[in-house]
Amino acid sequence: MSLDLLIRNGTIVDGSGAARYRGDVGIKDGRIIEIGRIRASAERTLDADGLIVAPGFIDGHTHMDAQVAWDPIGSCSCWHGVTTVIMGNCGFALAPCKPEAREWFARCLTAVEDIPTEAMLAGIDWTWESFPEYLATVDRLPKAINYGAYIGHSALRMYVMGKRALSERATEDDLARMAAAVQEAIRGGAMGFSSSRATTHVTPDDTPVASRIADWSEVDRLVGAMAELNAGIFQIGPDTSGGAAQRAFLARLKRVAVETGRPVMFGTISSRQGDEPNPWTYQLDYLDDCAAAGARMWGQTTTRSINAVFSLKSYLPFDVLPAWRELRRLPLAEQKQRLADRATRARLVADEAGMKPRGNVFQGGGAATTDPRKPDYDNLYVMKGVDWDDPTVAQLSAQRGKHPVEVMIDLALENDDQVFVQPLVNEHPDHVLGMLKHPRTLATFSDSGAHVCQEMGSSLQTHMLSYWVRAKQAFTLEEAVRKLTFDNASAWELYDRGLVRTGYQADLVLFDEGRVRPAMPTVETDLPGGARRLVQKAEGIAATVVNGQVTLEHGHATGRMPGALLRGPGARKG
Ligand SMILES: [Zn+2]
């Protein structure tokens, strides 16, 4: 029999954590049908000599709900070996949504996730109303990676309650309608139900998003609706404000998990922000404690710091100041001219003294860029490479004997792609490693598709391989691959993905373990309507295969669109 694709002579790291071995992988009709020394002929052969052949990476925390409509390749995740993403996290989704609410939904996504309204209005052919109709749209769209989606609490609440969702308790009638819609979504293939109680999640009017208005009995009811079907994951953006508030949130979440028995996931982070931040280990002990009480709970962690990203081409921390605001409205070339002018520079530097002081308010990437506080220059890095060892603005300021603001202006003039990163959480590599090593955490949480000009988390997989495996040797390659593939496939019940095994879907990534790493991020204006976003690619990835077809070769899209809509276990029950 002739194969569709033969990957010859690679080193297979199969995703289970088992030791690597040399072999060929034979693919037919989207599936792996043979592994070993394959003699069959094939329509196409890839030479994987010297390369690792691993399952495609799975990212369970993205916000690609809007982007899927205009970006068929699934960037920036696709460039980092990702072949499957789950979207609709944190309660934000584009369905269900009544036609008259579309613009408001778009504006909410702009407010929380920095997905430009202009891009959404220009890039989406918005034809759906119900969640199953949205899934049908995603199913039809050309796509080079696989997508699963949650039904989002804020979207659902707005759909059922209208503007009341932003201020009122749900009535019994509201609850019954929301619960029915959750069950309809789960039966239609939603991966679960998502919500948020994160204090950073606000509407365009700076009020809490709809899911934060809900009381916990509403959460019990809606997660309970999934429990009746024994299907669906509950994902929630946690209260990260610190201290007693965070502990109370976690205690209440434990009750939901224990009482419903549904898998629960929340973002696990290490933070110095917030009121009396709880130690990062608190959440890990909590995960064990929940498991002992009978809950099925995961912490979603990333592999590095989560950063607000600044540059001349996007945001700078000073953009809100009067002298800066005037300058930043100008075309880039003119800005650079003025930045070189002595008198202007003096004004810009002086302006900084009037910035809002830093408090202990927890700021996500959104507020850090749009409502910035006076920077802590010891925690503002001048990005020189991707190895997490950059100098701080404070260090360069001391070296050069110049005000930190002048240093930043100089650097931006030397290179208008210069990027500055302010870690928001996970500042300490040791903490990140401690979280990653815990058996109840998942390496996920890129937030891909969101914070498009504020953060860049899409490189978490290549950072894992280059930093934690190659540079720090904190994980073997086999362990790291397992965390990015089989562990996530298991958590999201993707029963035929996440391993290189006969019978599994042929989602694969071929990379050079000695070279794989993220490239430097840049600011591009490639969104619909010309809106800007941060872009980060990778080096050392030779090819990506999705459902048996080569989608990327050396970072270039082949134009093949084999990506699938993945329906959750609720749909398979019939
Ligand atoms: Zn999120």
Question: Can you characterise this structure?
Answer:
With 574 residues, the protein is an alpha/beta fold. It contains 20 helices and 24 strands. Helix 4 (153-161) crosses helix 5 (172-188), helix 5 runs parallel beside helix 7 and helix 14 crosses helix 15 (404-414). The protein is globular. Zinc ion binds next to loops.
Topology, element by element:
Elements lengths: L2 E10 L8 E8 L2 E6 L5 E6 L4 E4 L1 E3 L22 E6 L14 H12 L3 H7 L7 H10 L5 E7 H9 L10 H17 L3 E5 L13 H4 L2 H14 L3 E5 L5 H18 L3 E4 L12 H13 L4 E5 L4 E6 L10 H7 L3 H8 L2 H11 L12 H6 L10 E2 L10 H8 L3 H11 L4 E7 L3 H9 L3 E3 L16 H12 L5 H8 L1 H6 L16 E4 L5 E2 L3 E3 L8 E3 L2 E2 L1 E6 L2 E5 L2 E2 L11 H4 L2
Parallel strand pairs: 1-4, 1-5, 6-7, 7-8, 8-9, 9-10, 10-11, 11-12, 12-16
Antiparallel strand pairs: 1-2, 2-3, 5-17, 13-15, 14-15, 17-22, 18-21, 19-20, 22-23, 23-24
Helix pairs in contact: 4-5, 5-7, 7-8, 14-15, 17-18
The structure holds zinc ion.
The site of zinc ion (ZN) has 6 residues, from loops.
